[in-house]
């Protein structure tokens, strides 16, 4: 039997309004199933949202329904881009200087 992990149910949500909150996104995506987590990254200098988020659904089926139902739709004045999140790429260590 194939096991599904939480990473398999995480979506990237792009082109968000800077006014969008995690509660707004939870309400939007809960139409498609249980939302187990919403993460809205913020700019470290200004503290403002960065215009994208990650939403984790309770099941693979709910995530697939949410991608189909929300991708390309208007939300708070913006056309959202929604797809399954890809694993983070290893970008290496922090740019140290070498001689």
TrEMBL record:
Protein name, entry field: RNA-binding protein
Keyword RNA-binding among record annotations: yes
A GO term, aspect molecular function: RNA binding
Organism: Haloferula rosea
UniProt-listed InterPro entries: Nucleotide-bd_a/b_plait_sf (IPR012677), RBD_domain_sf (IPR035979), RRM2_NsCP33-like (IPR048289), RRM_dom (IPR000504), SLIRP/GR-RBP-like (IPR052462)
Domain of life, source organism: Bacteria
Keywords (A to Z) from UniProt: RNA-binding
Region (Disordered): 77-99
Biological classification of the source: Bacteria, Pseudomonadati, Verrucomicrobiota, Verrucomicrobiia, Verrucomicrobiales
CDD domains: RRM2_NsCP33_like (cd21608)
Pfam families: RRM_1 (PF00076)
PROSITE patterns: RRM (PS50102)
Domain RRM: 9-87
Biased composition (Basic and acidic residues): 77-92
């Amino acid at each position: 039997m194939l096991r599904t992990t939480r990473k398999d149910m995480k979506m990237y949500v792009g082109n968000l309004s800077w006014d969008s909150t995690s509660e707004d996104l939870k309400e939007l995506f809960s139409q498609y199933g249980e939302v187990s987590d919403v993460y809205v990254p913020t700019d470290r200098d200004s503290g403002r949202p960065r215009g994208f988020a990650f939403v984790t659904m309770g099941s693979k089926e709910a995530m697939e329904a949410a991608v189909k139902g929300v991708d390309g739709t208007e939300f708070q004045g913006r056309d959202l881009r929604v797809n399954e999140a890809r694993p983070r790429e290893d970008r290496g260590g922090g740019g140290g200087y070498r001689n």
